[in-house]
Amino acid sequence: MAQSDKRALLAEGLAAGDDDAALHARLVDAGISAAAAKYEVDRLAKDPMAAMLRRQAARMAKQDWLFANQQRLAFEAEGGFALDVLADPEPASFYRHHYEANRPAKLSGIIDHWPALTRWSLDHFAAVAGDAVVEAQVERERDPDYELAKDDHRRLIRFGELIGWLRKDEASNDIYLTAYNSGANAAALAPLWDDMAPIAILDDTRPRDGFFWLGPKGTLTPWHHDLTNNLLVQVLGRKRVRLAPPWAFARMRDRRHCFSDWGNEALLAGEGDATNPPVLETIIGPGEAVFLPVGWWHQVEALDLSASMSFTSFRRANAHVDDYASYGAVG
User: Fold this and answer.
1) What are the sequence ranges of the domains in the chain?
2) Do 141 and 174 form a contact (C-beta atoms < 8 A)?
3) Residues 69, 74, 78, 81, Cα dihedral to 10°
């Protein structure tokens, strides 16, 4: 076996927390003689890189223990591992028990005063902005990594043309106007703000600060976590939202940036197991919302023709992206 292959085996073992005996066994299992394996393991005692890998493995083991404690506490909580449901929450209570506690929740009653609940329809969208040119994500179904490669799927389209396609009422994940397109669409879709009003739990000094989503039944946002706290508000149609906690990181198959290799997998709601993460699941309809805390994994599926708004304009800095550095490969 080449020396580089031996070193790779040793590095893998050190990163996994193997002691000398386990490292020796790993090499022997790979076909290396016992004597050669002993020689390679003995050399590690003077290798500073091996010492660093051992310290890193110890730190990771400590982190795993801390995450395991978070899981135990969540499962032992009154009501068990469940999604809180809040009716028109008082802002101070919401911030103390959910925003600051990094705890998700389903909310109702927070946009009952929005004209959008009765106005928004394809006819209304066509009337107020049908001639505008908007940006959308298209041809998503041909690309399994459409979310990671979303820049490749940006296209300009007349809003009325998109509305015409949506009138077919066909299930599809191929076209979706998303928050990622909001920068390009802010001016074109500005008239829709007249159908909205301030939300009590958000920062009232930042009006008209949100992101518009519109797509057919069948649009899927695959498993990922955001770099900010988010409030997803449903106005038209229904969406299924699945969530998994940050402390389930080891089971979320995160290999790159904030995306999970679970992709569009419909992970079952429940406490999970050694392979599958714990998952919360809910359906939000018109007038309902879900609070998605920073770091919580989630997947969103449109069950009907769907129009939503999302907001990051909380009464806190919500500046978690500033020191985020894991944009490349993670695992």
Assistant:
1) 3-74, 80-323
2) yes
3) -150
The parts of the chain modelled with pLDDT lower than 70 are 1, 3-4
- pLDDT, position 4: 60
Q: Work out the number of other CB atoms within 10 angstroms of the CB of residue 87.
A: 9
Q: Which residues are within 8 A (CB) of 331 and not within 5 positions of it... i.e. 6 or more apart?
A: 253, 254, 255
Tokens of 162: 């998109």
From the list 277, 264, 250, 253, the residue with the least C-alpha distance to 66 is 250
Domain 80-323 fold: Jelly Rolls (2.60.120)
Structure tokens at 302: 């449109």
Nearest to 176 by CA among 119, 215, 144: 215
**For position 1, what pLDDT does the model report?**
61
SS3 content of the chain, % helix, strand, coil (to 5): 35, 25, 40
